[in-house]
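ok so heres the complex, two chains, lmk if somethin looks off
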Amino acid sequence: QKEVEQDPGPLSVPEGAIVSLNCTYSNSAFQYFMWYRQYSRKGPELLMYTYSSGNKEDGRFTAQVDKSSKYISLFIRDSQPSDSATYLCAMSGDTGGFKTIFGAGTRLFVKA
Amino acid sequence: GAGVSQTPSNKVTEKGKYVELRCDPISGHTALYWYRQSLGQGPEFLIYFQGTGAADDSGLPNDRFFAVRPEGSVSTLKIQRTERGDSAVYLCASSSRAVDTEAFFGQGTRLTVV
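and the predicted structre for the whole thing:
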């Protein structure tokens, strides 16, 4: 079993839809939870990070962490064609755990 | 520069050859990370530098892989006796903090071993 599981998709939605992306994990030591966006042939770009449990909102993006269920989510409201990319969840520990573990990424297509 | 720069952007090499991949981090960033990303997968941690020293090299797959950062800025990832299985995109990231929650990635070097 992988430490971080993420549905690879692809996920195809119409423009304006609400998108829900999710990851599950097994290591209870993870404390930092990140979401990255990666366009084709580009490096990942950090969208948001959350420390421990809770919600965080930034514009059209909302990140949620439920440590009791070992489950994290990213919601995208009013999705745009420019949101079409691969979304990677990532997480790391809190005690010198410099090693960040990434999910496999979910490919998202937003159709105009 | 404004961002993390990696050179070359593409590298094709023959099996058994030696390659060097270079990373120029964002100026002033003390933390530097190397990852490897295979097709359809997320980045896989290789090594982390804090300053000049490798603070965590537990992700290096075997002793054919080695990385240096002699002056605490530019880093070079070195791969000896390349194998076809080494083909992947090698990503470098840097951050100003030890915990890479705000790491900035380069565009990667696409290595193909033929």
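quick notes: Chain A has a mean pLDDT of 92. thats all i got rn
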